[in-house]
Known about the structure:
Blueprint: H1 12-27, H2 32-68, H3 72-120, H4 124-131, H5 168-207, H6 209-257, H7 259-265, H8 268-305, H9 310-320, H10 326-343, H11 345-348, H12 350-381, E1 393-397, E2 403-412, E3 415-428, H13 444-451, E4 458-465, H14 482-487, H15 494-503, H16 505-516, H17 526-532, H18 544-552
Parallel strand pairs: 1-4
Antiparallel strand pairs: 2-3, 2-4
Amino acid sequence: MKKQHTSGPSNLRATIPKWLRLAKLWFTGEEKCKACSYAAATIALALITTGLLVKISYAQRDFSTALSGKNAEGFYRAIREFVLIICLAAPLFSFTKFVEDRMVLAWRAYLTRLLLQAYFKDKAFFRLGLRSGGSSTDPPTFPPSTFSKSPAPLGATSDASSSNLDNPDQRICDDVAAFVQSSTTITLALCKKLFNCAAFAGVLWSVSGQLVVFLFVYAGVGTLVTTSVFGKVLMRLYYTLLALEGDMRYALVRVRESAESIAFYGGEKAEARMVHSRLVAVLSAAATRIRFTGYYDLWTSVYQYATILVPSLLTAPRYFAGEIEFGTISQTSFAFSSINQALSIIITNLGQITGLAAETDRLDVLLTALESHHQANQDACAVLPTTRHSTVQRHLSPEEQGLSLTNLTVNLPGRPNEALCQDLSLRLDPGHSLLIVGPSGCGKSSLLRALAGLWTQGSGKATMPVRTFFLPQKPFMPLGTLRHQLLFPSAEDIDAEEEQDRSTGSSKISLIASSGSGAGPDPEHTPLLQQNRGTTSPKHQLPGHLSSVLGSH
């Protein structure tokens, strides 16, 4: 299938509703009190720091005026006032940065946990891979930036669906962190700039109303030119670069996971060529983005430097006429610079804003795909029993000892008109075996996927015991200790028990030492020593096939 990349968000305006949707997850979720507390604290600190900046501008005015008038007493008084303000402002600015960083950490933790919970719920990590272009008979994966033509999932709320969901790991790990950091930085910067405008506009207007009018017109024209000429291009380039970097990382992860198979085939040269081709694509996209960023930097430099002399040119005639003091000129320049930076926030931060837009769109696609998947499951569960089910009904019964299939029909995912089997009925009693034979690709493994609940499209009913264990074609070794390997996937409390074991590690060491000295173990502590030797407590019995294998040795 030909690889392609979406163009990402079309413009900044289209991204705003998506950003609000993602931001509301934290501010209206379970941690809304914490979120609102952080937001209130950062806004309050921004107001206080803005007031201190205004006080600094007045101190600079008095300092310059006393210096030009050779007023020693006024000069040292202004110096003392300036030092006092700086002593208050310096720790406050540092504390503001600390609160902002804590807010970023709390927001990222909540959003990442939320997406992880949805990603692993109802086997979404597997079924989203099916919709992303997985094969009909092979286990589904997430092919990087490869989009299937399958219909949008049931319950989709926007045009973005799992059909263009590439690299979900990158979205959850990297995009969430970048989204939260950029959102906090840009939002707080916008608040601070608005406060600066409100605080310094009065100062500047009292000196020259012409400067205020000029600033608003100049910033408005500059913002329009920046967003229309550079905004859409940089946004698309950043989105494409994120996807291509995810492709390259995906290729390297595949090499690491399949290292032995590649080595057996002797396919390292072919894999190296493939990885290098993706590196070339990344470098090409990065070079294009650097070129357009250079044009953008040239424009912003011209925009900023063109206004350096404006405050002096407009206030100098009044100073020469004796209408204002010399310190007023420096205060006017300071206020002019503060308001100009506030009104030019989009112009000077367009690169970060375009990055945030791309990250927002990628996370919105992931969130929409997860919501659509869970909505589809809910709709399937709400079907009336009297109607013909559009999904395979899988029933786990504590009374059932065998396997029973009733009128089972399994369709290919995304292809409801293509059936692997139709109206299959059979019963397999305890102690009996069943061998399914057929040519490769006929659907032998796919039938097991349907029985395991991985493929649900079709009809009929499958009844089996509650503790039914399925083995995949490709072995999987979970991260963790040997105990994790043996008890997977039923060891839900292993981490908690191991944490408790670590907290009582000193007592275990003393018991093992006494055992090694030749003395028999205390009967009261025998279960603990047996657990350290590799056996399990009754709460964590080994799966049946592992119990039989270990028992035979």
